[in-house]
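Example record

One chain of 298 residues, shown exactly as stored in the release files.
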Amino acid sequence: MRPLTVSAILATALLGSSAHADGDGLTDILGPREIAVGEGLRGGATGESAVGLNPSGLPLTHELVFEGGYGYRGSDAASLVGVSECDSTNALPGCFFYNYASTNPDSDGMSLHSTAQVGGIAVAYPITPRVFFGTTAKYFHYSTDLMGQSNSSGFTNDAGLTVRMTDIISLGAAGYNILGATSDDFPRAFGTGVVIKPLPVLRLGFDSRWKFDGSGGTRYGGGAEFILASGQMAFPIRAGALRDTALQDTYLSGGLGVATVSFSVDVAARFAVSGPKDTEIIASLRFFGPRMPAPGVN
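Predicted structure tokens for this chain:
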């Protein structure tokens, strides 16, 4: 993997969004907060995190946020970029998003190339103060010169449900690429998760995801986020682990952040500790518009 410094990541943070280890369209649009905690946010995904994990989590916050980030994946020299705008201050919370991935794996001394683009809109609706439904309509286009793979494109959608059991525990479930086009890189899949917040400064998350294509396999993992606060600033510290049974890989991850009332910066890294070697480094920058207290469940 080519070396990346934190300063280089932050300098390009406005360019895009996410990374993951196997060129999977379901994970290439995940950001540093999800990566750092082992993807354990399906039960409480908010903002841009809801686009890739569970669109029904959008009503969990009341804020307007613009986000961009950049990710690098070492296994196939991939650059992953994207931008989003999410507004959950109105009666129908929603996000516009666009993601671009470019990979350049080596094969017998030849550098091959593939690209994937995904764009669309996610919306959610609070059925009750405790139950939220969300859906994502998106278009993908995949182009490659890799042997054994073919170009693909089409419209598809995701759908999810979030249930706030209490102010401490929330559950989430989501289906991916349910209706419309699918491909090897954009397969049908299903995921579940739980988020537990025993303290205002501590959040725990645990998730699983199953693919319903020929490769099959399960991803399961989780992690924790602890927030240090100082005046008008907060400093999230995140750590997690993830296991992918199809890849036979186990990953450890971690991340740091700094947040104010108007912007935040998040950086994360993930390393394969068993199975094929891989490293990911990813960062994002968020700008906040109007923000209101998160709704309660009473």
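Notes: The chain is about 5% helix and 55% strand.
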